[in-house]
Structures are given as structure tokens and as C-alpha cells.
Amino acid sequence: MKQLIKGISFVAFLAVFAIAVLSAGAETAVSSNPQVVKPDIIQIISEFIGEDRIEGDTCERKFALEILHVLEANDYQVADSLLDNVETVYIFDFLRELCEIEYGNYFEWSVDEKYRFDKWMVEIGQLPYCFNLMPPMNELSQEEAFDLGVDAIRQRYGIEYDNSMENTTVSYCMVNPEDTVGIWRFRYTFRDGISVSVHVYRGKVTQCKMIPVISNISVEYDRLCSERGAFFKWSIYEKAEFAYALSAKLDIAQDRNETIDDIIVLEAIAEYGFCLPCDNSISQADAYDIASEAVKSKYGLKNGWDRDTEVYFSYFCDDAGICVWRIIFWKTGNSAYASGVVDMDAHTGEVFRIEKNGTKPNEFIPYIERL
User: Fold this and answer.
1) Model confidence at 234, in pLDDT bands (50, 70, 90)?
2) 96 and 248 in contact (C-beta within 8 Å)?
3) Would the pTM of this model clear 0.90, i.e. be above it?
4) How far from chain centre, in Å, is Cα 295?
5) Residue-wise pLDDT tens digits, 269-280
């Protein structure tokens, strides 16, 4: 089993935005007696923990052992030794990895399974909302969206897709928290190692891009940074998407004993809780105006001080539902405030942090605190 325990939580992981798993309509497993239907792993764990036994994003080893024993009593092969020398378990990762016992590698789970896991995590307070969705009735079916992707690959790259020989992973993900229509995301991997990412949104192919097959998370992170710039410069959508699956990728890399460069930064990204704004959050534009005025007031700047400034945004939530807009001012051209960050309550707009990243030692903001 993958590593279940994280070291230090910078901000409780949602998950982003981070990861997601199972479905509202997954088939139940069947025992050796065809007349007896065996409950699946989510149902078993859900019935055991109920609605009120989880508080926060961690649990004690004793409680995690109780879950393992319940699974053993239902004929799942798990071992207490998985939690040796462990006192605190991160619930989201722990439950996701337990579900992999039944559903296999997370990245290969079906749309139904990913949605079902997200829905479960929302119910027990581990995610603020479902990142993986079930397509609504007026949406293209998975098969129709898949065929559009195959056609796009053929037209753009001249590559024919053979269902019997190639491999595809699929997700149906949220675009806007206020909209039930999501985006189909396929990754077609061919026998020669070529991999193509295709996005289908509202019946149209919005992305058809050949990507390298990368097994090393450090190489992938470096590649994305070379394309997009430093992580803090990425859009809120890019940050949420990357962080959402990062925890699982780090687990896999650790299982393989891979050397992970930038491990501190990557673990911080995984645990920040990067996600997309919910419907009761203030807008990005309003957050910017509040931050700009707050900096102006604190440092005695003139109107228009940020006219030529590079500005970047982050949005993240913790397990208690506390969400933060972070506005990152970069290269302002103003010596009084050359760069810095402003953090505010994403629901009320109340500013609780204004820091300057200057040249003096007491003005330095560590990189992981300004992502």
C-alpha cells in the first residue's frame, strides 16, 4: 500500500483539490455465493464511521486500525502492519488508498467511481465540493466524447486509435462550482509511448495536445514550470488541477523509491488545499481591489500604485471550510512595496495578512508561503 502518512500539513488538503475517487452507480462486488451481494468498500467504511466520527483532516492510529479490522471482517486483505509506528493518519489519503484495494490504481478509476469518492469526501468533510462530477442528461456520453477525441487525434496527428491495443484514462471534472456541466478529460496512451491529452467541453474539443509520458513527478513539475513559469504564476485553475492529483503521484513516486527534487515545495502544494472558488466567495476582481487598497493604505502608496504590477492569484480551503484568496503582487516597480502577498477570508473579504517581500532579512517571505 502507498504511504498513508504525511509529514507536516501546511494547510489541510482538500483536495484541492487534490484527488478524487468513486461513483454513485458502481457495481457491488459479489461473493462466491451468487445469491449473496457483498457490500463494497465505501459502503462498509461509511456504515462504520457514520456521520459524526470524523473531525478535521486527520485521525489517530487507533481509529484507522478499527477501519482495517472492519475490512478484514468483510474479507478484505489488509494488515495492521501498514500502520506500524504511526500515530496520525491523513483521512483523505488513507481512505483513497484503501479504496484502491477494490478499485485499483486511482488514475484508472471510472468516472462513476471518482464521483462517488468525491461525494463521500464531501459528506465527511474532507472536500468542500465534488471536483469530479457525473455528466448531466444533456451532456455528451463518455463514448461520444471519446470518439470526438479519437477524431481530433486523427486529424491533428494522423494517429489511429485501436481500442484493443491502446490505453485511455478518463475524468469528468468541474469547470465552475456553480455549473453542473463539466469537462471531459481523456488521456490516450499509445503503444509507442505517445500520449495525447484531449478535453471536450460542451460538445467541442477544446484541447488536443501531445504530451510526454512522464513517470517522474519532479520532471513533470519542471516541465510545467518551464511552460507556465514559477508555480505562483499559474492560474487558479492550473494550480487546482495540478494539486488535485499530486498527493497520489507523490505516493506512487515514494513507492518506487524515486528521488524527488523540490520535495518540500511539492508536498506543500499537495497540502495547501488549492481549489476553485465556491459560489459564496467574493470574486477574483473584488479580491484584487481589496488587496490593492490594503497595500496602499499600509504602505502609504499613491492611487494607481499597482498600474504596471504583475498580479497572480491563489485560492485554497482547509478541512474546516475556511477559504482564502491570496493575491500575489510581483515586480511592482515601487521600492516601497516591490512585491508581496495579501491573504483574505474568501467569503468576507477580511484581510488578515499583508507582507512585503523586500531585500531585508526580515522582509523575506519563504517561497512555500507565497505560492
Assistant:
1) very high
2) yes
3) no
4) 31
5) 888 888 888 778
